[in-house]
Amino acid sequence: MDELKDTYRTITKASEEVLFKDKNSKFFGYAFPVINEEEIKEHLEDLRKKHHAARHWCYAWQLGKEDYRYRANDDGEPSNSAGMPIYGQIQSFNVTNILIVVVRYFGGVKLGVGGLINAYKTAAQMALEASKIVTRTIDLTFEISFDYPEMNKVMRVIKENNLNVVDQILELDCKIIIMVRKKEADRIYEKFDATYKVKITQLEDQ
């Protein structure tokens, strides 16, 4: 039986700028941690301003912790000579929630499709090698609802299982939001579900 996958790999901060040269063409590589397409657009706009004299701003991104979404863009280079080689490095390093951009300044000598594939792949690889890759857990969010008299029962379960409380409203009607590592989720859910006068509900991931 396959073990439940509840981790993913990503980067924590933008990489340093890297540079790959081939036949006078310059390829500047960047990797950014991202969580949505709005952030991706902002990084691309910033790089277009920074490298306004460049010829191409090719990129690939992947979002999601389990169900991945991705895009690869050749930005005017021959089809599949830039975006997919960059995306191939995202797959090779097994990272997600990431954007890699390679900015090209044309050096006057054509590289051919093979040369372009190698250049974009290498610049993407260098950007990833310049990044700190971390492994994070996939966490599920639950809301625990109960009346104030049940507080001690609930807090005991939270303390015994060392659970991560992200928000709480402790009044007559109490609510506590917790985050639980995916592979522990069923066990924790059952503990609260079996506790008299305590209701637990899974919240959708934002």
Automatic annotation (TrEMBL):
InterPro entries xrefs: Impact, Impact_N, Impact_N_sf, Ribosomal_Su5_D2-typ_SF
Location of the Impact N-terminal domain: 23-128
GO cellular component terms, semicolon-separated: cytoplasm
Signal peptide: none
Protein's GO biological process: regulation of translational initiation
Family (UniProt): Belongs to the IMPACT family.
PANTHER family per UniProt: IMPACT FAMILY MEMBER YIGZ (PTHR16301:SF20), IMPACT-RELATED (PTHR16301)
Protein name (database record): Uncharacterized protein, YigZ family
Species this chain originates from: Salinimicrobium catena
Top-level taxonomy: Bacteria, Pseudomonadati, Bacteroidota, Flavobacteriia, Flavobacteriales
